[in-house]
Specification:
heterodimer; A: 92 residues; four-stranded antiparallel beta sheet; 4 strands; 25% strand; B: 173 residues
Chain lengths: 92, 173
């Protein structure tokens, strides 16, 4: 029973944290560029932006790229540099 | 005596493994574990319609009045031992199987062009996952309670399929 409680606490804790697909070293949130700006930059490239979330201190974008393909892409919130999948503490 | 057939036992542990593994997996493995869980649930539902007595929904999902009466006896600590699933356990099975179906359906929806990146679909999927974890926790708590209450290891029973033969006052169902 005790092991079960610990397992549940661990599950809950891991759910609350980032997905772990990528993470950025991006400093204070005040220094970030806005999500609207990123949307504008991607639209310029021919993307359709559906949703932007913050994940692992990166911007996580769900959308369609210029070819109309579904994409889930990470960008550094200060530089908007694309974050390679699996990158840890990406500095942009 | 033998209560849980091989299909029920394999389906039970396969579903538990798929759900736990899918919780931690990301990307394609997460999706395939979700579809595997859905497949297990659909097979289990079919088995619940045509399988042997103790595997059948009609045997272990009673109506609201019988379920409420049983719940009252649980609160009064006077509930009888069931050889199969007790009424609350039976309804928990219905809840868990339904949650997995909705979870898999919302997960699939989130991968379609139409609903890709749509907030409410993603949030619904996350909420259903939390709900499933809460139900699973309640399920394990109920199993632990019944095991202590009737002095029978129900986890071992789901592994071996065997349970103590019914005594006077027990319910065979």
């Amino acid at each position: 029973m005790r092991a079960f409680v610990f397992a549940m606490l661990f599950l809950t804790a891991s759910a609350a944290s980032a997905t772990g697909l990528a993470s950025c070293d991006s400093g204070a949130k005040e220094s970030w560029q806005s999500q609207d700006k990123l949307t504008a930059v991607l639209k310029e490239k021919g993307w359709q932006v559906r949703r932007i979330k913050v994940d692992g201190d990166c911007y996580e974008v769900y959308g369609m790229n210029e070819k109309g393909e579904r994409v889930e892409a990470y960008f550094h919130p200060r530089t908007f540099a694309p974050v390679p999948k699996g990158a840890k503490g990406f500095k942009g | 005596m033998r209560v849980w057939d091989a299909f029920v036992r394999v389906a039970h542990w396969a579903l538990a493994c798929c759900v736990i593994a899918a919780w931690f997996a990301r990307g394609a493995p997460h999706e395939w574990l979700g579809y595997a869980a859905l497949a297990v649930v659909l097979l289990r539902i079919s088995w619940g319609c045509v399988g042997p007595a103790h595997a059948r929904f009609t045997r272990f999902v009673p109506g609201p009045s019988r379920t409420a009466a049983y719940a009252k006896r649980v609160l009064a600590r006077r509930e009888e031992r069931y050889l199969g699933h007790n009424p609350l356990g039976g309804w928990m099975i219905v809840a868990l199987l339904s949650a997995v179906i909705l979870l898999a359906a919302s997960g699939w929806l989130a991968t379609t062009d139409r609903f890709w990146g749509v907030a409410w679909v993603q949030d619904l999927h996350a909420w259903l996952a939390d709900l499933l974890v809460a139900l699973a926790a309640l399920h394990v708590a109920g199993v632990a309670y019944s095991s202590l209450r009737h002095r029978e290891n129900l986890v071992a029973a789901m592994l071996t399929g065997r349970k103590r033969p019914p005594a006077a006052g027990d319910v065979f169902e």
